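thread: overnight batch results

M.L. [08:02]
morning all. the overnight job finished for the chain we discussed friday. pasting input first so we're all looking at the same thing
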Amino acid sequence: MSAPAAAARAVLRPLLDFALPPRCPACGAIVGEPHRFCLACWRALAFLGEPCCARCGLPFAFGSGEGAECGRCLAEPPPFDRLRAAVAYGEVSRRVALKLKYSGRPGLAATLAHFMLRHLEGDAEALLVPVPLHRWRIWKRGYNQAALIASALSGLGGVPAALDLLRRTRATPPLRGLGRRERALAVRGAFALAPGARPRLAGRRLILVDDVYTSGATAAACARVLKRAGADSVEVLCWARVVAVDEAG
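M.L. [08:03]
and the structure it wrote out:
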């Protein structure tokens, strides 16, 4: 940011905060800074990190050694190489995700990206790839929330984003309420590479970006397409993930 721009921002910021004060993205209470939660909502968030499964990021009660994986990943290795989420899926994280998706609040994508940034490990071959929406859903919603998050992460972390690498070739039914097997069947064959995308991803480390990870059906379907096209590795980075074993099934 140039010196004149920084000076103008310093002058205008108090005026904007007075007229439009920053608010908690979950409950709407006035907070001190943008992208901040109020104390009550902050305390309700469960931030995720080590110790956890090296593959899917499922939290461990205690450290199990470097590279340790959970029982499910050992029994049924997912097609992606690594998954990390900023927080556990709960009342507050769910509320923010739903506001971004269904309440016309695209600015919340930057808030989610700020909290996901600590899990973003960039390198020269990394490329952010958002989980795509079907065109009918984009026309109805006005945007793809995963693409907005990927763009914000790219700006914050300096990792390039390829917003058009993947396509959703058909509309899929809502996955809420479906079991793990039904979810996998619902998204089977629903994703494909965009024309001319194969040379852009060959041999690269791809980071699949989404808002919420539940059963993993969508992430797995996207990862399989990207791996078959020649990606060196596929990771998943999201705002929230379900951590309860019974819910994740």
